[in-house]
Amino acid sequence: MHKMNSMDLILKYFPELTDKQVQQFGQLEALYKEWNTKINVISRKDIDELYLRHVLHSLGIAKVMPFADGASILDVGTGGGFPGVPLAILFPNCQFHLVDSINKKLKVIKGVADSIELTNIRTTHSRVEAIDETYDFIVSRAVTAMPEFTKWVKGKISKKQNNILKNGILYLKGGDLTEELKQYAKVKAYLLSDYFEEDFFETKKVIHLPMKHK
């Protein structure tokens, strides 16, 4: 039986990891536990189930969208580095930009990234509206309602398409989103329960909203 909260859980769904990736993912628990005692970025309950509630949840995006090499991804309101850090480990040939308005959280991310030699992420202490760059995808974990979120990230999607899904937003969210998403014709919700069998994912989704460059 796979332990609910260990590397086994990640390997169960991502068996093709390289030795380096296994090592990087494997170090996350101890590192986050250590950092969390200094700067609280993850609740106690969640830190005890880090691989389920944070790492695998973040990797739900990868099941929906296996990023092509060279893709650029902005993680908005990254907090302790989710979904950005697990995705950056999984996709070493993509570039991740993690943004949060709370600087001390970014300190944790830098500490973790340095320890596991994760070189394809950078962090910026800023509100997302102030970021003046474009990306293939913008990822986030339910920081606000989608209409608000689309306003924040308007004009930050790059024109050139290189991935199997159209450039745009990939949003991790749970619950009934009918009302929130009804204004978007092209939105698609992917159920994480189609990929992961654990109860935690029962109502969790990845929302893909294609967005135009301008």
Quickly give the CATH architecture: 3-Layer(aba) Sandwich
- The proportion of strand residues reads 15-25%
Q: Report the structural category.
A: alpha/beta
> How many distinct helices?
8
Please summarize the sheet with the most strands. 7 strands, mixed
What is the CATH superfamily label? Vaccinia Virus protein VP39
Low-confidence stretches are none
* Tally of structural domains: 1
* Total number of beta strands: 7
What is the helical fraction, as a range of percent?
25-40%
Determine the CATH topology: Rossmann fold
Mean pLDDT: 93
Q: Measured on Cα atoms, how large is the radius of gyration?
A: 16 Å
Oligomer: single chain
How far apart the termini lie comes to 49 Å
CATH class: Alpha Beta
